[in-house]
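Lab notebook: predicted structure, single chain.

Context: the supervisor wants predicted structures on file for every construct in the current expression panel, including those that have not yet been purified. This is the next one on the list. No modifications to the sequence; it matches the entry in the shared construct table.
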Amino acid sequence: MGCNPFRWGAVLGGLVLAFAWMAGTTTPALADVSGPACVTDASHLSINGKRSYGTCSGGIPVVLVNIDAPPIGQTCQDPKGKPWECGRWAAYVLLELTKKRAVVCKGNATDQNGNLVSICYTEGRELNRTLVDLGWALPLVGEGGPYADAVENARTKKLGLWQGQFERPSVWRAKQGKVQ
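Prediction complete. Output recorded below exactly as produced.
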């Protein structure tokens, strides 16, 4: 039996059309951004932003998706009940995770403030998960979702916020009249 060139042409043509259709139906990310990060707090950063007079200016504002991290002004209690600046420490941890490293953020939505809602990485490590795993953030949806195992690790080892008592950051913000 010989090779029918018309059949192969039809097969190849069909494959080309199928690949073209699949390429056309993928939804590109709204904005994948990368570069150095300027940390605003433990859940907000600015890619390619610069720190000036204590605030980040310029760059692309990003909010880390699926986490609830304490804002700079939030305080918690240590095991003896003494207040400590857990929000400032959480931001410091994110700063250390991103310092002198390129940060890649992948997102396809913006929040009400125009921030790119993203999962961010540095050197292949997901920052959102790492903050939960180290105890400096909580999963956004209760204690389940994509970071359930990470929050359990932090709670068991009494890491970060879990070393004492704290108010859930979203509750603290609501009491202060602030939104994420």
